[in-house]
Structures are given as structure tokens and as C-alpha cells.
């Protein structure tokens, strides 16, 4: 009886930990999105000098209009967390981000190191699979049937 009560208390404590962990994951991802959008703005500023040196004015104008539209769309539809799978020391977060007239789904694999979260790798929803086509019962050659594409930096894992 006592053992059952103790394990209930233990389970409740664990639950609190998982909830506060999810809050920490949400805060971490929001900080990441915010820093990512600042980085984007800095990159655009740095690219201006380069573009002014090499691109013709009409092309330049088109590029800037496109960037402006992309920026407005990102601001109107900021990155959102769709789901968090919390496994304690690791977590998987699915997010949605505006991309042109489409939306990108991304999958972030997080690991807790020294009591803070960090991104171990991230994947992009496979463009070939997302339409849901069957590929004639063959395994998708783009993502190997995983449904997510990981960059070269993550390919070894
Ligand atoms: Zn695929």
C-alpha cells in the first residue's frame, strides 16, 4: 500500500518534471526562432553590398521585392511548434514555417546536455513524400522512406 502511494507521488513528480521540461523546450525553440530571424536579417544586410556590385538593377529590384514579401509572410505567420515528443534526455519537435506560398515542416532532434537543450540535427519534410503519393510501392529515393530529409551534416547518424 505504502509502495503504491510512494510510486504515485513519484509518478506525479515525474509528470511535473515532464511538464516543466516541455516549457523549457518551448522556450528554447522560441529563442532559436527569434535568433534565426535576426540572423536572416543580418545576412540580407550583408548580401546587399555584394548584390549591388554584381546584379543588374531590374534583377536586384525583383530580388528585393521577393525578400520583402518573404519577410512579411514570416512575420505574419511566425514559426509554430506543432508537437513535442519529450523523452527526458532527448526530444523531437515538429514545427511549421511559412515558405513562399507553402509551409515547411521541420523536425528538430534535441538533446539535454548540462541541463540545457541543444539541437543535434534537423530534418525537413521530404518534398517527394509530402504529397502522399505511393511512389508505386517503391521506397522514396529522396528520403529512403523516412519522410524527412536531413542535411549532409546529419547524414552519418
Ligand atoms: Zn520521401
Q: How is this structure best described in words?
A:
By secondary structure, the protein is an alpha+beta fold. It has two domains: 2-125, Roll (Nuclear Transport Factor 2, Chain: A), CATH 3.10.450; 126-157, no CATH class. The protein has two helices and five strands. It has helices at residues 2-54, 57-76; strands at 80-86, 90-99, 102-113, 116-125, 148-150. It has a five-stranded antiparallel β-sheet with strand order 1-2-3-4-5. The radius of gyration is 21 Å and the shape is extended. The mean pLDDT is 83.
Number of alpha- plus pi-helical segments: 2
Assess the beta-strand content as a share of residues.
25-35%
Which distinct ligands sit in these coordinates? zinc ion
Order of helices and strands: HHEEEEE
Structural class: alpha+beta
Q: Flag low-confidence runs.
A: none
Can you count the beta strands? Answer: 5
Cα-to-Cα separation, first versus last residue: 46 Å
Amino acid at each position: 500500500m505504502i509502495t503504491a502511494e510512494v510510486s504515485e507521488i513519484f509518478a506525479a513528480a515525474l509528470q511535473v518534471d515532464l511538464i516543466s521540461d516541455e516549457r523549457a523546450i518551448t522556450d528554447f525553440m522560441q529563442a532559436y526562432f527569434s535568433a534565426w530571424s535576426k540572423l536572416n536579417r543580418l545576412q540580407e544586410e550583408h548580401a546587399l553590398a555584394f548584390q549591388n556590385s554584381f546584379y543588374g538593377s531590374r534583377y536586384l529590384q525583383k530580388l528585393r521585392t521577393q525578400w520583402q514579401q518573404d519577410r512579411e509572410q514570416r512575420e505574419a505567420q511566425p514559426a509554430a511548434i506543432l508537437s513535442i515528443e519529450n523523452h527526458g534526455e532527448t526530444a523531437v519537435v515538429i514545427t511549421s514555417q511559412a515558405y513562399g506560398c507553402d509551409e515547411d515542416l521541420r523536425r528538430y532532434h534535441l538533446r539535454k546536455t548540462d541541463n540545457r537543450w541543444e539541437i543535434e540535427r534537423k530534418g525537413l519534410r521530404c518534398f517527394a513524400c509530402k504529397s502522399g503519393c505511393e511512389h508505386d510501392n517503391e521506397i522514396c529515393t529522396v528520403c529512403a522512406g523516412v519522410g524527412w530529409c536531413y542535411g549532409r551534416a546529419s547524414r552519418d547518424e
